[in-house]
Write a sequence for this structure.
């Protein structure tokens, strides 16, 4: 067998987290809680080189995210180069900073699509959950997205405090003219992991939200694609996270660290390369950090002998690490995992009503990040 | 914006003019050796014949033109059944709009 026999396919999905700066302070953000310690952002020329190298390997779907990508004043330059190279470009934004001048410039540069986040359907809850006054601004941005003829994906992260408003959220999406709606139940990484006990919905809430989504789908009279992402803690099998680490997905974080998923920096004992001194080709094919969890040699029981391992790849490595302390364990969402009780206990805990002052939400701010990681 | 369902009132025939729907972008990807349809945060990898048909759906050519063009390019005949069946499926999936 030659060395290339196990070579992975191209990194079809490239996610550039252009900055950790963000005008919002959402308590469910997946960004690392120690983001305040992350070093200087890549310069424009570095990002353009990453685009060229990744495209040459076959990357085609591009996500521009953060933080808030509009915080970079070279976003239009990055979009223009990505468009010239043939990427399909998705801007993942809070909308803050997206005025008419920029939305027109981004259109001219070749931006394909805008995913706009809302935190809830009401001004009061949106502004509380993001810890900013942004609801009215987001509504204006939604109108601009339509005016400039972008496909609009509305993304709302669901959790205990807003999941009961799914029907109102869907009505809002309809009013705003969204073509796609992502009702993305919180995944517990980063700030969301820190705030998990306060964010986890009850099983009854999840079931009511699914029923409301189903009713809306039957009622709506125009094409609107609604994705209801079920929270994996309520499942018995894990998600096929990233389709297996190092299989299709490549993230570059603001300081240039390349990761096989947004959260992988937390995994202990792995060294991830930096695009400042490594080519994307080296990152993807040769770096130990990207090769470690490829294939199934790393698996332990019960995954190793499991007939389902080719379907779910043992679930999420970060979740296994966060909950069991060992990233090579089965994702405890799986009810075959000896650690599955950690998930059922977290869900059971969510059934318990608790006064909000017992453990307040910790919002994603540079100050809180610096306090958590002095 | 969406295509009308195909039924007795809206049949596909040789005069139909198909176009890739504005919500998708058709593109050749050398790394995948395939045409793909790109859309917000998603991608459909097309097989060779689907790619050959869709790349001819430019919003100008009729289905009769497209079929004749394919038969010439591949030195084949009797392709219209396959082409019409694929277009019907593509309209159903909203990849293609009939103008």
């Amino acid at each position: 067998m030659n060395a290339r026999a196990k070579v992975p396919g191209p990194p079809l999905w490239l996610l550039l987290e252009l900055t950790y700066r963000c005008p919002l302070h959402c308590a469910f953000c997946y960004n690392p809680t120690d983001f305040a310690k992350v070093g200087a952002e890549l310069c424009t020329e570095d990002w353009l080189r990453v685009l060229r190298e990744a495209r040459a390997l076959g990357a085609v779907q591009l996500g521009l995210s953060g933080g808030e990508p509009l915080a970079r004043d070279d976003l239009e330059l990055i979009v223009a180069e990505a468009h010239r190279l043939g990427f399909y470009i998705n801007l993942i934004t809070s909308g803050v900073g997206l005025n008419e001048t920029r939305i027109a410039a981004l259109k001219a540069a070749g931006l394909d699509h805008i995913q706009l986040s809302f935190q809830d359907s009401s001004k009061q809850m949106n502004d509380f959950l993001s810890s900013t006054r942004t609801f009215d601004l987001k509504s204006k941005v939604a109108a601009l997205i339509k005016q400039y003829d972008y496909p609009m994906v509305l993304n709302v992260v669901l959790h205990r405090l807003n999941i009961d408003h799914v029907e109102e959220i869907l009505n809002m999406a309809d009013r705003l003219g969204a073509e796609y709606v992502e009702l993305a139940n919180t995944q517990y990484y980063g700030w969301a992991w820190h705030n998990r006990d306060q964010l986890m919905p009850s099983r009854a809430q999840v079931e009511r939200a699914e029923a409301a989504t189903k009713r809306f789908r039957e009622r709506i009279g125009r094409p609107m694609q609604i994705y209801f992402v079920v929270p994996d803690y309520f499942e018995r099998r894990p998600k096929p996270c990233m389709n297996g680490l190092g299989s299709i997905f490549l993230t570059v974080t603001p300081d240039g660290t390349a990761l096989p998923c947004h959260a992988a920096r937390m995994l202990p004992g792995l060294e991830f390369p930096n695009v400042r001194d490594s080519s994307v080709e080296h990152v993807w094919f040769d770096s130990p950090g990207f090769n470690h969890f490829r294939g199934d040699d790393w698996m332990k029981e019960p995954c190793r002998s499991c007939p389902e391992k080719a379907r779910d790849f043992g679930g999420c490595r970060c979740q296994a690490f966060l909950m069991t302390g060992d990233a090579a364990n089965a994702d405890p969402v799986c009810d075959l995992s000896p650690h599955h009780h950690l998930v059922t206990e977290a869900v059971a805990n969510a059934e318990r009503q608790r006064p909000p002052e017992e453990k307040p939400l910790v919002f994603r701010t540079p100050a809180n990040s610096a306090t958590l990681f002095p | 914006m969406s295509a009308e369902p195909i039924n007795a009132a809206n049949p596909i025939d040789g005069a139909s003019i198909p176009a890739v729907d504005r919500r998708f972008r058709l593109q050749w990807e050398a790394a995948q050796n395939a045409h793909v349809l790109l859309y917000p945060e998603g991608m459909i990898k097309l097989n060779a014949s689907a790619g050959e048909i869709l790349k001819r759906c430019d919003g100008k050519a009729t289905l009769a033109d497209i079929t004749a063009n394919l038969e010439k390019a591949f030195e084949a005949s009797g392709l219209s059944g396959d082409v019409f069946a694929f277009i019907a499926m593509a309209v159903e999936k909203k990849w293609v709009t009939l103008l």
Remarks:
- The interface with chain A takes residues 1-2, 23, 25, 27, 29-32, 36, 38-43, 94 of chain B (CB under 8 Å).
- Chain B has three helices and five strands.
- Residues 80-92 of chain B form the longest helix (13 residues).
